[in-house]
Write a structure and sequence with these properties.
- There is one protein chain.
- The protein is of the alpha/beta class.
- 54% of the residues lie in helices and 8% in strands.
- Helix 9 packs antiparallel against helix 10 and helix 14 (238-248) packs parallel to helix 17.
- The radius of gyration is 26 Å and the shape is globular.
């Protein structure tokens, strides 16, 4: 079954295997794995986040055997995804029927977040997979196996320890309680090692501030809690399965057909098997602990952090639908179609591109723009923001053949670009891109309070689009590409040789009457016909 899962995963991800590294892959996990390959458990080419090194060690081992490269990395991660699916199938079969296990595993494999994360060099899916193996051993009362799998989960990502800790509340025997607490030991040893070599325990100070210290605001915790619930039961069309489960609860359980009854087309007296109530409550307890904990810690409210619990919810919902609805196959086919649709079609709300195939669009956009820079301006100084700054300066990430000098800014908001415009002598070209997916229109667009909350608590900001960015920097748009709500542009900075008698203070583009009009802010504060005079360019762009 592992071989079947691995082959199917690699085949379904075949068009993605050669993609360069994306976002956090490029920013942390790949540099950390390369450092480990060179012999250092603690990353030194990137600030250490204190994540345990198990997944990075796996990548380093695969690189040592097969050679370093994006395709090897993606296949290595797909191997871990196959292990995860196999563990989930075994867990589902241990608590329910083989039919439910097969359907739940298929839906988990095609759920957009799981599918997208399957080939990405990140740690959340691997940690989830080891948790599934640990849960399977736990329900079968295999103590040593339980401790080993949960220890591996904690060494893949530290937050996986929450699963075994959540189960401690259900245990009455001292022996099983010790088994569940044992995974704390290897995790504590890792942190002790990290502290002895770096002087801090939970990652570098900036990482700790962003993920822990800055989150202790009641309103922020409440908002994150609501977002975590949404990611657990509704995100990326997961609500279709949740709604089907709620609908199924309105019907009585169906009788199980014995082989003889199937031949005679008569119903048996035994009802279809359900997941034992105690196990369902244990799954829910794990979900509650995860949701609460990750509402308090974790700077970015990313859906991939919930991978250890979302498949458990899928399993419970599939079991309920199978047990109570005669048309369960048709219902689950609709759910599967919804999941596949969400994999290709971006939702009508903000989300992380790494949660479906939008990450592929991001990579293709950046490949095109950075190839343009490399061919047209190979020796240029490029103004850009992370992660493009790493993409240009680190050829091993797969975007450029040679390092390109970069001048880094935080993002492409009006404030950052206006500050950069005052120092155009420092750079020759600007690579500007969408740092966040912006849905065309959302329910909360006109709710100013929600926008303020996102900005204050979750780092939300609005990037200037390519035309406005070029106007602020005083450059010329040389390259623009857009894909499904994401975009990238290359701006060539124009050096002004002569100044006019009445030079413009700033220039911009204003959108009126369904057209873009160039608007020049001069000392007389005038604009082109049809565009109202704007007295403060900075205020204009901020709005």
């Amino acid at each position: 079954m592992f071989a079947v899962f691995a082959v199917l995963l690699i085949a379904s991800h075949a068009p993605l295997l050669r993609l360069p590294y994306f976002w956090d892959e490029a920013g942390y996990y790949i540099p950390a794995a390369r450092d480990l390959l060179a012999g250092s458990l603690i990353p030194h080419s990137t600030p250490s986040n204190a994540h345990p090194p198990l997944v990075m060690a796996w990548l380093a081992l695969c690189w040592r055997i097969f050679g370093e490269g994006a395709t090897v990395t993606r296949c290595a991660m797909l191997g871990l995804a196959a292990v995860s699916l196999l563990g989930f199938f075994r867990l589902a079969r241990a608590v329910s029927s083989s039919m439910v296990a097969a359907a739940s595993t298929l839906l988990t494999a095609i759920y957009p977040v799981f599918f997208a994360q399957s080939s990405l060099a990140q740690v959340d899916l691997a940690a989830a997979g080891f948790c599934f193996w640990g849960l399977e051993a736990y329900v079968r009362r295999r103590g040593i196996a339980t401790a080993i799998w949960f220890s591996l989960a904690a060494l893949a990502k530290e937050t996986a320890i929450l699963v075994s800790l959540a189960l401690c509340g259900w245990e009455e025997t001292l022996g099983q309680l010790l088994v569940l607490l044992l995974p704390i030991v290897p995790l504590a040893l890792w942190y002790d090692y990290h502290y002895s070599h770096t002087g801090f325990v939970f990652g570098n100070p900036e990482f700790f501030r962003y993920n822990v210290q800055s989150n202790f605001h009641v309103l922020r915790i409440v908002l994150a809690f609501l977002l975590r619930i949404w990611q657990t039961v509704g995100y990326l069309n997961l609500y279709v399965l949740t709604a089907a489960c709620i609908l199924a609860m309105m019907y009585q359980p169906l009788p199980e057909l014995s082989p003889a009854a199937k031949q005679e087309k008569t119903a048996g007296s035994k009802l279809r098997q359900r997941i034992p109530v105690a196990i369902q409550f244990a799954f829910v307890a794990i979900a509650i602990v995860y949701i609460v904990a990750l509402s308090i810690i974790g700077g970015a409210v990313l859906a991939r952090y919930m991978l250890p619990i979302v498949p458990l919810i899928i399993l419970i919902c599939v079991s309920t639908v199978w047990r109570r609805l005669r048309a369960w196959k048709a219902v689950l086919c609709v759910v599967a179609a919804a999941f596949i649709g969400a994999l290709f079609v971006n939702p009508p709300y903000g989300f992380s591109p790494e949660d479906n195939l939008a990450y592929r669009d991001y990579i293709r956009l950046h490949q095109g723009a950075e190839a343009f820079i490399q061919s047209r301006h190979p020796r240029a100084r490029v103004l850009t923001a992370w992660p493009a700054s790493d993409e240009l300066s680190r050829p091993n990430l797969g975007y450029v053949a040679r390092p390109i000098q970069v001048v880094r800014i935080e993002d492409f908001t009006a404030e950052q670009l206006f500050a950069a415009a005052d120092e155009t002598s420092r750079f020759d070209v600007a690579l500007v891109f969408s740092t966040k997916y912006q849905a065309p229109s959302t329910l909360f667009d006109r709710w100013r309070r929600w926008q303020d909350w996102k900005t204050h608590y979750f780092g939300y900001h609005v990037d200037l689009d390519p035309v406005a960015a070029a106007a602020v920097l005083g450059g010329k748009l040389a390259y623009v590409d857009r894909r499904k709500g994401q975009w990238v542009s290359v701006i060539e900075i124009q050096i002004i040789e002569e100044a006019s008698a009445d030079p413009p203070v700033a220039s911009a583009l204003a959108y009126t009457d369904s057209k873009w009009h160039e608007c020049v802010f001069t000392t007389t504060q005038t604009c082109f016909p049809g565009v109202s005079a704007i007295h403060d360019p900075a205020e204009y762009f901020a709005r």
